[in-house]
Amino acid sequence: MKIVTYNINGVRSAHKKGLFEWIEKVSANIICIQEVRAAEQIAKTFFGTWQNQVSLFENELFLGKYYVTYNCGFVSGYAGTLMLSTEKPERVVFGIPTNNEANDLTQRSVVDPEGRCITAYFKNCVVVNCYVPNGGTRLDFKMDYFEKLTNYLGMLKQKHNVIFCSDSNISHTELDLTHPKECASRTGFLPVEREAFSKLINLGFCDVARLVFKDKILYTWRSYKSRIVGGDYGWKYRFDYVLVSDNLKNKIESCEILDLEYSDHMPIVANIDV
């Protein structure tokens, strides 16, 4: 299965740059998109209609092959997640349920006003697409959100093969950004954030890119200017991840980080035999 995670930093801008043509070309089985930033616009672009949280499985397939699930929240032009899949999900849940809510098979959504999380159940795996808050002035909110997310993922992996695709807004180690010393006191590389990410990994998850690239310095976010200037200009971070539950660790076939022009983030493309 080919799976993509990609923060597109606004669908209108990315669409104008050719994102949809790239999506058709990459031909992945599942594409997890974060920060669509246009609830009404994304719906009009794909469907000509609008609802905030919905899986429109009965509509014509996007690009002729993708079922579309989106959770754009209720804050216009902010955050939002989207999932494209060639296989119709058996069940979709929006937001981060508590343990009791997650075990309730009738549960379809919890309060998620910023549209940050989609969970899709497929025949052989569960895919969670999440856009974690970036911190800044809301560090406490971010840490609380990440703790709930960690508990949720830990609960899911007890019964399912789990694939977690995200912009986590955390660089986990010094190999995940270009200037670790200068960034040590910056949101995204704070000790408390890194410790939280380690806690998630230690629950029994494998970082696909780190497994494939070993000790290579990796990044998935760079400013638009640094992309133009190139070289070692500017700070660059790895905020984007594909994590799999450890039982899928030996099923990882490949992983790429692509330097594309559609966003300030870079997509991760992984092949996993599920």
Give an overview in words.
This protein has a single domain, classed as Deoxyribonuclease I, Chain A (4-Layer Sandwich), CATH 3.60.10.10. Helices cover 25% and strands 25% of the residues. The chain is built from eight helices and 15 strands. Strands 3-4-5-2-1-15-14 form a seven-stranded mixed β-sheet. Strands 6-7-8-9-13-10 form a six-stranded mixed β-sheet. The chain has a two-stranded antiparallel ribbon with strand order 11-12. The protein starts with a strand and ends with a strand.
Structure keywords:
alpha+beta; Deoxyribonuclease I, Chain A; globular
Largest sheet: 7 strands, mixed
Q: Averaged pLDDT, please?
A: 89
Sheet/helix structural class: alpha+beta
Low-confidence stretches: none
CATH architecture: 4-Layer Sandwich
- Structural domain count: 1
CATH topology: Deoxyribonuclease I, Chain A
CATH superfamily: Endonuclease/exonuclease/phosphatase
| Assigned CATH class | Alpha Beta
Number of helices: 8
Strand proportion: 25-35%
Q: Which strand order does the major sheet show? A: 3-4-5-2-1-15-14
Shape: globular
Q: Please give the oligomerization state of what you see.
A: single chain
